[in-house]
Design a protein that fits this description.
The protein is of the alpha/beta class. The chain has ten helices and ten strands. 42% of the residues lie in helices and 19% in strands. The strands form two sheets. It has a five-stranded mixed sheet, with helices on both faces. A five-stranded mixed sheet has the order 8-7-6-9-10, sandwiched between helices. Bound molecules: 5'-O-[(R)-(carboxyoxy)(hydroxy)phosphoryl]adenosine and zinc ion.
Length: 334
Amino acid sequence: MRILGIETSCDETALAVVEDGRKVLCEFVYSQVEHAEFGGIVPEIASRQQIRKIGPLFQACNEAFPLAPNTIDGIAVTCGPGLVGSLLVGLNFAKGLAYGWELPFLGINHLEGHIFANYLSDDSILSPFICLIVSGGHTMIVKVNDWCDYDVLGSTRDDAAGEAYDKVAKLLGLGYPGGGRIDSLAAGGDPAFHRFPAAKFKTGGYQFSFSGLKTAVAMYLKDKTESFIGDHLADICASFQARVVDMLVSPTISAAKDHQINTVAIGGGVAANSGLRREFERRAAAEKIRVFFPDLKYCTDNGAMIAAAGCYRMQRGERSDFSLTATPYLPLIS
Ligand code: KG4
Ligand code: ZN
């Protein structure tokens, strides 16, 4: 089964054709750069850029892999969560294709796409597993009982981890999005340079909170001179990253142990973080847990993960109808 996957939930326009959920036949991603000067996503610009880019991207895809009703079997498209204007561009594009080509289409939850990035990247991953979804908009621990069968074990109370990276990058003048930039700088810094506080919770469970950490970084920087910050940029990044990594890894490993599950997978843009990958490998080895990360290009938003999830569900006979609409706050389990 060959599925065209369309992803336009935020500031990436992405298309991919995937065969049987794992073989990527072609893929294109356009990442918007227009938000950098505003230090964050401007929804109005995001949706307008989606409209400008989706047509040319479809043409590029068509040149790499001829798209026609007899070369693909269906269309999978992100229908939420995300920015409503951005989502509507991909969703309506998918509906147009499905109608014109008389092909089935299916709406896919973006968060499920991040889980399926692991399915796409490694065919040795088997359910059940614990999945940490860690992106610009979400931070949650999901128990994947089977593909498409989930229990949400915990999530962030405020900011997502990627959001914390982006906000701290902004404080440090590193541009937007700043996760990758902090990650590279952290590689050359001392993680013990400054101890940023960890969030503490009165109730148990697998919880995250990053807004306090972001404030702690802001307070720390307040009385520092520009030259001090410049001299210790790598150390500050490494100290911030060490704290984020610990705040992500510890509850995920605990969730696996508490549920007697010996496989952990990570998904979402922050799963590209080198410090996070290294620490997961170290802690998982110590606990005899297998850990999976998607290929780097499938951590951040892409069309292949949507096609992979779409393929899996369409093989089970699932279809959407033309009344499907974009749902900005679509939960993983509805
Ligand atoms: O999954 P994604 O592309 O979009 C959402 O669904 O939100 O994730 C984007 C987020 C941004 O916050 C970006 O700063 C972060 O992922 N990110 C990283 C790295 N690469 C991307 N954060 C930390 N380290 C990285 N290497
Ligand atoms: Zn995402």
